[in-house]
């Protein structure tokens, strides 16, 4: 594994740590009709976090722990800011996974990163749609 690939994977893991934390905040303030989507997105980020940590450990890389807490980029105190935070989370994870795609040295890592980027882009489009953003998608997610 190259240094660039290792660094990108560690950055993606940190983005997943942050996403899992942020979805706890999102869950606290999301509209009741969003409970299912929040739970699904939280589970997806937990699974991606865990599989990324396992892959790094299997490659002999020390897996850093998550931070105890994270700061939201803006106050979240009702459903609209909660949905906006979800957009931020999915944008950040898409950006991190796109960097892995660009720096991957092996086909399996590139495939994993492509899958993670695609999943983040779909979740991002979901939240953009919920907020009424048009268009809900971008041509190259993670490239902002």
From TrEMBL:
Pfam families the UniProt entry points to: DUF4439
SUPFAM superfamilies linked to this entry: Ferritin-like
Listed InterPro entries: DUF4439, Ferritin-like, Ferritin-like_SF
Domain of life: Bacteria
Domain DUF4439 positions: 8-143
Entry protein name: Ferritin-like domain-containing protein
Species in which this protein is naturally found: Nocardia callitridis
């Amino acid at each position: 594994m190259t240094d660039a690939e290792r660094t990108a994977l560690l950055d993606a893991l940190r983005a997943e740590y942050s996403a899992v934390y942020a979805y706890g905040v999102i869950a606290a303030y999301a509209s009741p009709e969003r409970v299912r989507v929040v739970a699904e997105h939280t589970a997806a980020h937990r699974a991606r976090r865990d599989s990324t940590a396992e892959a790094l450990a299997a490659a002999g890389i020390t897996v850093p722990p998550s931070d105890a807490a994270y700061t939201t980029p803006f106050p979240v105190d009702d459903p609209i800011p909660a949905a906006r935070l979800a957009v931020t989370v999915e944008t950040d994870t898409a950006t991190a996974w796109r960097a892995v795609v660009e720096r991957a040295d092996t086909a399996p890592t590139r495939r994993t990163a492509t899958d993670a980027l695609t999943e983040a882009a779909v979740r991002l489009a979901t939240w953009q749609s919920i907020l009424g953003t048009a268009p809900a998608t971008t041509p190259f997610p993670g490239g902002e």
